[in-house]
Amino acid sequence: ATEAQRKALIARDKGCTHPGCDAPPWWCDAHHILAWKDGGTTDITNLTLRCRRHHILIHKGDWRIVMINGIPHTIAPTWLDPTQTPRRNTAHDPP
Question: How far is CA 34 from the centre of its chain?
């Protein structure tokens, strides 16, 4: 991601987008929702911030990320959430 894209990701995501994670943006990587090798583009609509732990988790497991109204939501694997409910991280929201 470019510096401008990273600034836009920080403004939108405010840190790791994995539900419940409070990792700040400077601990996060820009993650392609649809992998670059699979034709995913490097633009804000296909990028999200993930801390190293959750970035590795998304690549190793059955976790998925979907965009809903321009906001990244995480879907847990079926063994953890049989309903496959998309969840947004609210840990960075103002009190």
Answer: 11
**Are 17 and 49 in contact, with CB atoms under 8 Å apart?**
yes
Mean pLDDT value across the chain: 95
Q: Which helix (H) or strand (E) holds 53?
A: helix 52-60
Are 89 and 18 in contact by the 8 Å Cβ rule? The answer is: yes
- Say which residue, 59 or 13, is predicted with more confidence: 13
Q: Which two tokens stand for residue 58?
A: 């998304």
The residues, any chain, with a CB within 8 Å of residue 88's CB and separated by 6 or more, are: 17, 19, 68, 71, 72, 73, 74
Cα–chain-centroid distance for residue 88?
A: 9
Beta strands, E only, the chain: 28-32, 47-51, 64-68, 71-75
Q: How large is the average pLDDT for residues 61-72?
A: 94
